[in-house]
Write a structure and sequence with these properties.
Distance between the termini: 23 Å
Strand content: 5-15%
Shape: flat
Largest sheet: 6 strands, antiparallel
Oligomer: single chain
Number of strands: 17
Number of helices: 21
Helix content: over 70%
Radius of gyration: 64 Å
Structural class: alpha+beta
């Protein structure tokens, strides 16, 4: 990925639109981003990271802070990035969630948006675009920060991180999550299987413990030994025994139930026959009473028919009386209504004459109301005119106050502008002082470097003296050990025949001549030395020899370093103390000059720091003056408008006065009320009279109609009364009853009760006769010839036997179920335990192997795979690290065993060729750490690119870190960057180091001001 053009609008400290065209660099692909602290150098990298990954380059910034604080909500924040990959061009535009312009000039909340243009299509959904970009680059956000963009403050993370931290970083970069998941799956599976086995074992012991104490001896012994197969066998036999006993008891109970049922059937038949015979006797005794009730019911039914005819006659007579009464009443109402109607018609004719005069009265009322309206309008205009006169007076007073305030504000504005001019002069002065301080700082820096070189020179001399003394001691010791070893070696050689003779055995070949006979074996001398002693002496000699060689090499290195220092400094060893004194004096003088300049700069900076506040105050004052002037113009315009309106109102009022017949509003309102009341009174009386006349006419018509209807009804009832009396007399004759028939009538409840009694008696009598015949027939079939007591005694004996057998059966069934349940659970858990044990051992071994154990030095499978990648990264990093440190340092992987069982295998050490020893990378100085971190990042980039075919790392951005390097280290670091540049990579560096400005020809210079930052390309 290589950026071609970056556009930032209202982004971070950049208020205006900033365009950075990387194609302007042509073949120069190494560039420097420079500028003061807080100007927005890192923001350029943030914009690229945000465009690609919807996030900032470091961990200290968030998307919610991207929009510039120098712009209003009317401006939208966005970033555009055009980049090239594998010969194709792509375009991304992103904007964060923000408040921005909406419709009709109103503000609205904008959500995050994205446009990703690729292969002729545009993706606008954020999640889809993020996924497509990551797949295109073949780098995740974390990989991008470790390989392409090295953020400020995170540069040394990988260098000094422990194995656990590196494991997390490399897992994401080399995508070993599947291995980690496999490790977790194996561990979880082994743990789950172990829990299942333990659970089965615990459950098995629990159910074995539930076996009853009255078990047989074989079962008790199996329980004691926890012999599960024997327990299962004994429990199975016990279940079979219980089941056989239960079946026998079930057969006995069935026979008893059959006998009991036969006896009970005979008892029930005898008892039922006895009850039926008693019931028959009672029914025969009630027959005479029931017959008397049957006769009474017959007379009652005939009397009810006669009574119904008599009621019809009485009802018609009552209805005739009611009609006659209503007819008389209607005739009276008709006469009264006719009289009232004549009186109402006379009054209506009188009111009709007054009602016809109402239009003239209404016209007069309209004229009066028009006069009232004119008087109201005159009063309203007078009120408005008075209000406008008062308002004009107040506005003129406000104009005078604003003019006085403008004079005060303009005076204050001049003072603020004068302060700003002084601040500009302070800026000019501070730039001169800063250049002077920078120059002095550079001189002081060079002096310190020279002092450091002198101290190193002095250190070399001191070390050489100490090493020379150590060399003399080791040389003397080596000479003694060498002499003693040679003596012992000579003695061993002289006695080697005797030593071989001591090892001879009869009938075995001689190792020298091969003979089986040894007639005259050699004898050992008194000064004999064993082979083991000689080897021990040789080991001591070799160890001291190694020390002698190492010290010799160190002395040679120190001599070369001293000679190089003499050439570099241009002095001899004897001149070193004088040069150190001179350097210390020069450093003191330079420090004093720096302190004075710092105080001066602080004073100037204090004035400059107030610029923004003074500028804000000036802008506020100027705005206040403009607002006051605007208010005066508005007030003057309002006064002019009000004066014109006052004149217009005077003319309108005079016009109204000429049209009025009277100027008294009260007099007009009294006349309006009198006319209105008179019109209302006439309308109401006329309406009431008209309504009353209509009601009386309607009532007269109704009474006339109802009178005729009642007369017709009365005639009809007289005819019906004669016919009904004739039918009543005929019914008495048919029923053979006289006028005393009502004595045979009964109340309905009594009648209904007698009907039910007769019906119930007939039903009982029929059932009794039927059941008697049925029971006698059944007794004859059963052959029952014994008393009921005999059968009852037999059933009581059977009941007692059934109860005993039932209790025995219930106890046996409960025992059998308990034993059967225990047996099933024991069998189930025993099989589960046997099946799970083998599987658990397999997964346990696999889990320990994958997750790391004592046998694998606690190195997991994932860390083993990552270690292979790590070795490649270290090898690639050392090609640059050795170059940057002039072959002094090399990164090495720490493979030594350490205490504890934590993650191991990915820790880093550094090997120092000067001392021949290794040590922790955390002991490196700031500059050395920067070089190691840079080398490691570049090595990681190379390895990832080699292992990931889709990854093309054509760009590298580095944020800060060069300020910790000395001149020599800076040279080697820049050479490394130029080497990357020559390979075609685009390399961007953020730094404050002045020397980089002269060494790197292309700059992106970022400047800041109170109105936001700007970025320009300088070549």
């Amino acid at each position: 990925m290589r950026p071609l053009k970056l556009v930032m609008n209202a982004f971070g400290p950049f208020k205006e639109k900033v365009v950075i065209d990387f194609t302007q660099f042509h073949h120069q692909t190494l560039f420097l981003v420079s500028g003061p602290t807080g100007a927005g150098k890192t923001t350029i990298f943030d914009a690229i990271a945000y465009a690609l990954y919807d996030d900032a380059s470091g961990t200290s910034r968030g998307k919610d802070s991207f929009k510039s604080q120098f712009v209003t909500d009317e401006v939208l924040c966005f970033v555009e990035l055009e980049f090239e990959l594998a010969g194709k061009k792509y375009f991304i535009k992103r904007s964060p969630a923000q408040k921005g312009p909406g419709k009709n000039g109103k503000l609205k909340n904008w959500s995050s948006e994205v446009e990703f243009h690729h292969n002729g299509t545009v993706t606008t959904k954020i999640n889809e675009a993020n996924k497509e970009i990551q797949e295109l680059l073949s780098l995740s956000y974390e990989q991008f920060k470790q390989i392409v963009m090295l953020p400020q403050g995170e540069f040394k993370k990988m260098l000094e991180s422990n194995s656990a931290d590196k494991e997390k970083i490399f897992r994401n970069i080399f995508q070993t999550d599947t291995i980690k998941e496999l490790q977790s799956l194996l561990k979880d599976k082994a743990s789950r299987l172990k829990q299942e086995i333990d659970q089965s074992e615990s459950t098995l012991q629990q159910f074995v413990g539930m076996i009853t104490e009255n078990a047989n001896e074989a079962l008790k012994e199996a329980i004691l030994l926890l012999d599960v197969p024997a327990i299962i066998k004994e429990l199975s036999q016990l279940v079979e025994s219980h089941q056989e006993k239960i079946q026998l008891l079930e057969k006995e109970l069935t026979e008893l139930d059959k006998t009991y049922h036969n006896n009970q059937q005979k008892i029930d038949l005898i008892a039922a026959l006895t009850i039926l015979e008693k019931e028959k006797e009672l029914l025969e005794a009630s027959t005479e009473l029931i017959d008397a009730k049957r006769l009474g019911l017959s007379l009652t039914e005939k009397a009810e028919d006669c009574f119904e005819k008599k009621q019809q006659v009485d009802h018609i007579a009552d209805e005739k009386k009611v009609i006659q009464k209503e007819l008389f009443k209607e005739n009276q109402q008709l006469a009264e209504t006719t009289q009232h109607l004549l009186e109402t018609e006379e009054n209506f004719h009188e009111l009709q004459s007054a009602y016809k005069e109402l239009p003239n009265q209404r016209e007069h009322l309209v004229n009066l109301k028009e006069q009232e309206k004119q008087l109201f309008e005159q009063a309203a205009k007078e009120k408005i005119r008075t209000s406008l006169v008062k308002e004009n007076k107040e506005k003129k007073q406000r104009i005078q106050q604003l003019n006085e305030q403008i004079i005060i504000d303009e005076s204050q504005l001049k003072e603020q502008e004068h302060k700003l001019q002084e601040i500009q002069q302070a800026k000019t002065s501070i730039m001169e002082k800063q250049r002077e301080a920078s120059s002095l700082q550079q001189e002081h820096y060079q002096t310190k470097i020279q002092q450091t070189v002198l101290m190193e020179f002095s250190g070399y001399l001191t070390k050489k003296i100490m090493k020379h003394k150590e060399f003399q001691e080791i040389e003397h010791r080596f000479t003694q050990i060498e002499s003693h070893y040679q003596e012992q070696r000579l003695s061993y050689n002289r006695n080697i025949a005797g030593i071989l003779a001591t090892e001879l055995e009869k009938e075995k070949e001689c190792p020298v001549c091969g003979s089986l006979h040894h007639p005259a074996p050699a004898k050992l001398g008194e000064d004999t030395v064993s082979k083991e002693t000689l080897e021990e002496l040789e080991g001591q000699k070799n160890e001291v020899g190694k020390q002698f060689d190492r010290i010799s090499i160190e002395l040679k290195g120190l001599s070369e370093a001293i000679q190089a220092s003499e050439i570099q400094l241009g002095i001899q060893q004897r001149e070193l103390p004088d040069e150190q004194i001179k350097i210390e004096q020069r450093l003191a003088e330079e420090s004093e000059q720096q302190d004075k300049l710092t105080e001066t700069l602080k004073a100037l900076q204090k004035d400059i720091d107030n610029e923004e506040m003074v500028e804000k105050e000036r802008q506020a004052t100027a705005l206040q003056v403009r607002e006051e002037e605007s208010k005066i113009q508005v007030l003057k315009s309002a006064v002019q408008h009000n004066t014109k309106r006052i004149d217009e109102l005077k003319v309108e009022i005079d016009t109204i006065v000429t049209k009025l017949t009277t100027t008294s509003l009260v007099e007009i309102q009294v006349l309006i009320n009198e006319n209105t009341n008179e019109i209302t009174r006439i309308e109401e009386r006329y309406s009431q009279a008209q309504e009353k006349k209509s009601e009386l006419e309607k009532a007269q018509t109704q009474y006339q109609t109802s009178t005729k209807a009642f007369e017709k009804q009365l005639s009809t009832l007289i005819d019906r009364e004669v016919d009904t009396k004739e039918k009543f007399i005929g019914q008495l004759a048919v029923s053979q009853l006289d006028d005393t028939f009502e004595k045979y009538l009964m109340e309905e409840e009594v009648k209904q009760q007698q009907i039910e009694e007769i019906s119930a008696f007939d039903k009982k009598n029929w059932l009794n006769q039927t059941n008697l015949l049925e029971k006698k027939s059944m007794l004859e079939k059963e052959g029952t010839n014994q008393p009921i007591e005999i059968y009852d005694m037999r059933n009581q004996e059977i009941e007692r036997e059934r109860k005993v057998s039932k209790e025995q059966q219930r106890e046996l069934i409960g025992t059998e179920k308990t034993v059967q349940s225990t047996l099933s659970q024991i069998q189930l858990n025993y099989q589960a335990q046997k099946g799970g044990q083998e599987e658990y051992l397999l997964y346990k071994e696999l889990s320990e192997m994958a997750n790391g154990s004592k046998e694998t030095d606690y190195i997991s499978f994932e860390r083993f795979v990552l270690g292979i990648y790590f070795e490649e990264i270290i090898e690639a990093a050392n090609t640059r690290f050795s170059q940057m440190t002039i072959d002094r340092y090399a990164l090495i992987r720490n493979k030594e065993k350490t205490k504890g069982a934590g993650p191991k295998g990915l820790d880093l050490d550094v090997f120092d060729n000067y001392t021949g020893m290794k040590r922790s990378v955390k002991t490196l100085s700031g500059g050395e750490s920067f070089k190691a971190s840079l080398a490691l990042a570049l090595g990681l980039s190379d390895v990832v690119q080699n292992h990931s075919g889709g990854v093309s790392v054509d760009t590298l951005f580095i944020d800060e870190g060069f300020g910790t390097l000395d001149a020599e280290s800076l040279d080697s670091a820049i050479e490394t960057l130029f080497e990357l540049n020559q390979r075609g990579r685009l390399v961007g560096v953020i730094s404050h180091v002045e020397e980089l400005k002269t060494r790197i020809p292309i700059h992106i210079e970022v400047t800041k001001s109170s109105r936001g930052s700007q970025a320009t390309i300088k070549m």
